[in-house]
Amino acid sequence: SSGINAEWPLRPGVRDIMLQAYDAGMTQKNEYVFLIVPANYFPLFNWKGPIDDLYRDTTQKTGRDEDARKAFQSAFIVNADIETSLFSSFEKEVKKRARQAPFKYDFDESKRKVPLYAANYHDAVLLWAYAMEHHYDSNNNTIDVTKLYNKVYNASSFKGINPITGDIELDKYGDRINKFRFWHLD
Fold it and tell me: Strand locations in 83-158, DSSP E?
């Protein structure tokens, strides 16, 4: 363990890697850009401090904060852009249900967070349910798959769906258009 506290949203070794890049001269001449994606696709809004403080070492006190700050100036941090209050509520519910049978898992005890992809799965099920509700023929116990696909693919909005990860938009291939935030530390 690198000693970064548990509240730090990036993988603990990221600061160490950035310092190694600094020591190798890879961050001073604007020749390299480091793309940082938080581990396991966790939303960065769990970070408690200003975004410009991500490089700080809060536990080891190595005295290299200034070097780390300079190193992080060559980094871009990429993270999902989602509605924080919806995800926070979802995360609380997942943790509550995970403690119950049959799972009996305690996120808090393991110090793990609910990954954002769990919310993406949740939204996918909502989208499927929306499409089924509109295209299931209960009289014949059938589904017109072509109509189902076209309904989802051509929808400009999905009324009645409250996605955890934000509004659902699809591209021309039917893939979800994700929204991201980029940060650069000055």
Answer: 136-137, 142-143
